[in-house]
From TrEMBL:
<keyword id="KW-0804">Transcription</keyword>
<dbReference type="GO" id="GO:0043565">
    <property type="term" value="F:sequence-specific DNA binding"/>
</dbReference>
<dbReference type="Pfam" id="PF12833">
    <property type="entry name" value="HTH_18"/>
</dbReference>
<protein>
    <submittedName>
        <fullName>AraC-like DNA-binding protein</fullName>
    </submittedName>
</protein>
<dbReference type="InterPro" id="IPR018060">
    <property type="entry name" value="HTH_AraC"/>
</dbReference>
<keyword id="KW-0805">Transcription regulation</keyword>
<dbReference type="GO" id="GO:0003700">
    <property type="term" value="F:DNA-binding transcription factor activity"/>
</dbReference>
<dbReference type="Pfam" id="PF22200">
    <property type="entry name" value="ExsA_N"/>
</dbReference>
<dbReference type="InterPro" id="IPR009057">
    <property type="entry name" value="Homeodomain-like_sf"/>
</dbReference>
<feature type="domain" description="HTH araC/xylS-type">
    <location>
        <begin position="172"/>
        <end position="267"/>
    </location>
</feature>
<dbReference type="InterPro" id="IPR050204">
    <property type="entry name" value="AraC_XylS_family_regulators"/>
</dbReference>
<dbReference type="InterPro" id="IPR054015">
    <property type="entry name" value="ExsA-like_N"/>
</dbReference>
<keyword id="KW-0238">DNA-binding</keyword>
Amino acid sequence: MAESSEIIFDKLVYSCAFEKYRGDEEFIPEHFLGFQMSGETHAFYADGNTVISENQIILVRKNQLIRTVKYPGKAGKYQFISISLDSETLRQYALQNKIIVENRNKNKQKLFFEPDEFLNAYFLSLGPYINRTKEATPKLANLKIMEAIELILQSNPDLKNVLFDFSEPYKIDLDDFMNQNYMFNVSVEAFAKLTGRSVSGFKRDFAKTFNTTPKQWLRERRLDEAMYRIKQKKEKPADFYLDLGFENLSHFYFTFKKKFGLTSSEI
């Protein structure tokens, strides 16, 4: 069974699977709080990777690119709950509670929580909504999100500098960023936002930096990396084509031969 993701209420998503499942490339536009009910999530991003183990709680920062592989637990089931902490709700909370951000935290690592009976109890309280034994009204759904924010700050007050930083991403160096993130198969719009630019500004700066379009550069960069993996690391395309952002194996073989004039097996 492939993974199924169900929106329980506006900002709460429950994911379930009974076999190893590779998630899509994801642009994370909002912070979210997640709880690994069973199994493991292996998350890959530009700076490294993270393993989210059973019963672990994690806060994932907004404006990131992440790829995941999901593994069922010993009981044969994968379950993950995530609740989105959207900017509108966070602004509302900050206004009501007179939150002032003192130091903007530039560390982009994922944030794990130590075992916390309050946060654990919070996710257990979502059980009736997941099992559909109770329906959440819009007002109650909003209260549950506010409760999550309150518990995060109770666990670590300094996280206010992460949650309530509403500044736009600043313009960053395209060369460094793209060479760290070229393997993510996401839209130009996502790349633009992550580098602190409008779409038109991103395309304009990209042309100045690389003398080509994002689409052409990404294809060439991925193919060059594929050549390195085949020739130097002796890897097979079937083992890495998804990791390099190719949507399917046949498309990879076609573009590879078109660029290099040889098939991967001939090399």
